[in-house]
Amino acid sequence: xxxxxxxxxxxxxxxxxxxxxxxxxxxxxxxxxxxxxxxxxxxxxxxxxxxxxxxxxxxxxxxxxxxxxxxxxxxxxxxxxxxxxxxxxxxxxxxxxxxxxxxxxxxxxxxxxxxxxxxxxxxxxxxxxxxxxxxxxxxxxxxxxxxxxxxxxxxxxxxxxxxxxxxxxxxxxxxxxxxxxxxxxxxxxxxxxxxxxxxxxxxxx
Length: 205
Fold this sequence. Notes:
The chain is of the alpha+beta class. Helices cover 14% and strands 32% of the residues.
């Protein structure tokens, strides 16, 4: 009988790009006490890039967020059992007083990091943003109906002025993916294909 002996030399497999992306980032100024464990928290929210003859609809974050005074798109958390499209229509009305018509899904963006909520709670936070394109056929002067919430004010902003607006870095990155061009700010239903700082702008628990 012949015995065949095989010898193998092994070494750890280098991390793949996917492994690198899967690493959870942390807030740059995060200080964690000994024994403190982050609580898992997931938030799924719907937003809209709303255009009209008056420009792009933007909302300013209130002091109930970690982005007070800065700007982003209208939208917010999806209620239990609520369709994302209906959620963003509701949120647009609550935050800006505008009646919008959703035209298409623009993109879905996720972010995952460890940081502190506005309450100071340490969280392992997973944010899922469902972003639609929408139009407002009859734009009016924006009014915040959800007083005391996460929106301090709202405004129609001409596309050429977006670069001068203090938009959070995560929303600035997203807006670069959902391309805003002057011809998109006329309220038309466009169908072209789409050529994270912090998502802590959310209600306190």
